[in-house]
Write a sequence for this structure.
């Protein structure tokens, strides 16, 4: 199984998830949604995220669980 790498290139599944914490841009790419949609989900607290000061971070594991549960 292969998925798109965060830079848009194809990459094997195992390597794609080497990075455990994602930026907003990376999370949007992983979920195949716009950054604007991701921001709306964050504002409405409908997606798991962590705030580091003013920056947002997303756990790959938590995002995948969120998708499995119906996101």
């Amino acid at each position: 199984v292969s998925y798109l790498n965060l830079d848009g290139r194809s990459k094997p599944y195992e390597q794609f998830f080497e990075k455990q914490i994602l930026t907003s841009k990376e999370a949007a790419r992983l979920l195949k949604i716009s950054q604007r949609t991701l921001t709306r989900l964050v504002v409405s607290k409908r997606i798991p995220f962590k705030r580091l000061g003013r920056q947002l971070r997303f756990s790959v594991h938590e995002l995948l669980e969120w998708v499995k549960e119906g996101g």
